[in-house]
Amino acid sequence: MTGRQQWCDGVLAGPGGAMTDEVGVITGPLTVRTTAVPGGRVRIEIQYEDAEEWYTLTGSPVPDRGDPAAVHAAALAAVRTGHEAGAPGGAAPA
Question: Which residues contact 60 (CB under 8 A, 6 or more apart)?
């Protein structure tokens, strides 16, 4: 892999928050981290702002479709929208 491999930005979760595999829905000020991984996929993780523990955004990892930065932007948009947001292009929450 070449170029940038990780993106990390703060976001305020919309109503209904974001769905994680480990703890369910989280809300409020969050940080989203997207990391390119081998095989043309990206892993999307989320944490409470300034926390230490990261959680997997439900549906992650997802295909990067050749533009992992766009997947990161889509993940931020999904979390801003809320409604138990999961990874863009990933599995829907149960």
Answer: 42, 43, 44, 45, 86, 87, 90
At residue 70, φ and ψ (nearest 5 deg) are: -70, -35
Strands 55-56 and 62-63 come out as: unpaired
End-to-end CA, the chain? 33
Predicted TM-score (pTM) of this structure: 0.91
Instruction: For residues 9-13, give the mean pLDDT.
Output: 98
Tokens representing 41? 């996929």
pLDDT in tens, 26-74: 999 999 999 999 999 999 999 999 999 999 999 999 999 889 999 999 9
Distance of alpha carbon 31 from alpha carbon 94, whole angstroms? 23
Question: How many angstroms separate the CA atoms of 91 and 85, rounded?
Answer: 10
Distances 52 to 48, 55, 66, 71, 89 between C-alpha atoms, Å = 8, 10, 30, 23, 27
- State whether residue 15 is helix, strand or coil: coil
